[in-house]
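In this section we walk through a basic example: taking a raw amino acid sequence and producing a predicted 3D structure, encoded as discrete structure tokens. The instruction is simple. Fold the sequence below.
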Amino acid sequence: MFSFIGLFSSPAWSKTSFAILPVQVAGEASAGEGVTFENAFLNTLLLSKRYRIVDRQKVAQILNEQAFQQSGAVDPSEVIRIGRLAAVDKLLSIQLSKKGNQYTFTLTVHGVESGQVEFNDTATDTIGVDGLGKSATARLLDRYSLTGKVTAQAGSGFIVDLGTNDGLRQEQRLFIARQEVTRDENGMIVFENLSRVGIVRVKKVNPQTALVQSVSLADLNTPVQKGDLASPEPIPLQEPKISRTPLLPAAKPGKLILEDDMEGDRYLQISSGTGNRGDPYRDDEVFLDASDVERGHVFAFYGAPAQDLGDFIFEGDIAFEPETRGWGAAHFVFRSNREYVNAEGYVFFFTNEGVFDISYLRNGIGISILKAEPSPLLARGSKGDVRRIRLVAAGSQYDLYVDGKFLVGFEQEMLEGGGIGLWALQRTCLSLDNVKVWSVAPPSP
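The resulting token sequence is shown next.
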């Protein structure tokens, strides 16, 4: 009898490895702020359990022994030399600068085999160095997926070197991809290509490995094989697609999962966040009142039976109440995973002035899918300030409607399931009522 627990218990060393150079400070940023930023960045990165991170003391020792001087761009030959000594795949350098109350960070990732820059990102904010460190981590997490490898075939399935230590669970979806590398006569990489092989499901899992079964293949003539990459996130990552016509026009409500008129059972798990004003349940509605809050949110998420939704249809009445002080904004959050502070999910953001956008939360930080744009469907005064929001979610496709009219659709593979919730931003008072959630009915034969 085959035993994947006993035969495959080696550590998941195929995970992407990083050596992180000390943060460089510039402008008005102090050395102490650089240390605070670096600590926030590194601590958040380690909590993700996504990569193998070389100890900072070991990196410092290597830099000292090699008399390495950081100043601006890093020479490719230096990248290869330092990276090989640290035995890592990537070398990460960070610059932090400050002007007035604004901080700017720049992340640069060098591939150790090629010595070349493969990722560079810059962001500016006023949230302080702790928050900026977390934001920098989110950007790195969005660029580099947790990745393992297919290590063996096991009957009709395969073994991957990722397990519960990496957050895997039974029946989880994994993406399989194949990396093709071309090298020159000196062994240097001159071309890389990553192509999708297919999708598998985790059938058995232990702390360091998992047994998976193939679900679908991108090409029937290209099966999964030993050495392929495996990840719980889409690899290769595809850019989100925005649609101005419905992606799921045939989707119909199936089984009713939740009906909440706010009068009986209290399904919502309400957190005051930075301070909810008044009793949230009143007048047969739920009120998320952040009208006295100057910075932050008041938020609520649904528990059972709507806390782990796959394909579903949501409808609910969301209103900006008179207590809202001027500009008001709401976040409708769906397929949300993890706790509020480090949430991962999709966000439909809209204001009482008719502007909306769509983003993906990575470690609690928003990454844009659709940049802000106005819509007459959300403008102040359309049906008062009450909007009937409808979301259809099936697979990687999503359609949003307001008061029965199509607003926008998008396609993104990142999340397969999760919960739903509503956030009221600072100075905003929202009410929620008449919520219904259905599964998506099977297609008609």
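Looking at the output, two observations stand out. The radius of gyration is 24 Å. The CA atoms of residues 62 and 85 lie 7 Å apart. In the next section we compare this with other chains.
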